[in-house]
């Protein structure tokens, strides 16, 4: 199947949100942080993901996959959002500070209008604390890491090489720059084997424990690999 990998645009956001929701409908992390789907507000979640997508357009490396030969050529089949590496010595810029506050204000407005939509706030902060702890131990390269923050492929299009094509947009860049990549997978099987084919290796298990209700995430790192020009 031919693929077109392009940067996310405003018109792609509805399709990107649909791809995320379909892919995470039975995801272990999603079930845990929303305490199951009984109180999950799909409309509220779409607004929240839309805010995140717009932030990603401005601040991240956000790619979408499409099939140019399909009758629905604008359908988003998968997405990958990467955070660019941040060197240890680099201080937060005013622009980054403002972007952080902008997203916080937009999320606060959304919460006032829609409520929490089933989000278990306690568990969300348990995850953020565990994530910060894991990254502080794993991220030893002072030049920073390309962080694969979101990677999804719609369920009916999995197994077609879409995820690998999406990841390749940034892993090639990381190889050329000699920098490492990082991700956190919510499933060990089959996700870890898939990511291993992209050059990632398992680094650490992250256990998010809420009084015995545990969500396990799997931290993986990809070392830079020689490019053709480097190997010659």
TrEMBL record:
Residues 80-225 form the N-acetyltransferase domain. CDD domains: NAT_SF. It holds the Pfam family Acetyltransf_7. One of its GO terms (molecular function) is acyltransferase activity, transferring groups other than amino-acyl groups. SUPFAM superfamilies: Acyl-CoA N-acyltransferases (Nat) (SSF55729). InterPro entries: Acyl_CoA_acyltransferase (IPR016181), GNAT_dom (IPR000182), Trichothecene_AcTrans (IPR052523). It comes from the Eukaryota. This is Acyl-CoA N-acyltransferase. It comes from Amylocarpus encephaloides. The lineage of its organism: Eukaryota, Fungi, Dikarya, Ascomycota, Pezizomycotina.
């Amino acid at each position: 199947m031919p693929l077109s990998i392009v940067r996310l645009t405003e018109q792609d956001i509805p399709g990107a949100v649909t791809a995320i929701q379909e892919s995470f409908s039975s995801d272990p992390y999603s079930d845990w942080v929303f305490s199951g789907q009984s109180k999950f507000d799909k409309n509220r979640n779409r607004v929240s993901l839309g805010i995140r997508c717009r932030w990603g357009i401005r601040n991240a490396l956000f790619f979408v996959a499409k099939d140019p030969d399909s009758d629905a050529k604008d359908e988003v089949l998968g997405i990958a959002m990467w955070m660019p590496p941040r060197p240890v010595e680099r201080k937060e810029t005013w622009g980054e500070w403002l972007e952080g506050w902008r997203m916080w204000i937009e999320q606060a407005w959304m919460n006032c209008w829609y409520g929490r939509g089933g989000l278990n706030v306690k568990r969300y902060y348990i995850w953020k604390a565990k994530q910060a702890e894991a990254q502080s131990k794993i991220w030893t390269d002072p030049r920073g890491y390309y962080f694969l923050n979101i990677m999804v492929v719609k369920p009916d299009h999995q197994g077609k090489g879409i995820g690998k094509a999406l990841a390749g947009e940034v892993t090639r860049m990381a190889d050329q720059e000699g920098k490492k990549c990082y991700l956190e997978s919510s499933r060990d099987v089959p996700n870890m084997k898939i990511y291993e084919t992209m050059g990632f290796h398992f680094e650490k298990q992250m256990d998010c424990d809420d009084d015995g209700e545990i969500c396990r995430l799997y931290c993986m790192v990809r070392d830079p690999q020689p490019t053709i020009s480097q190997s010659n």
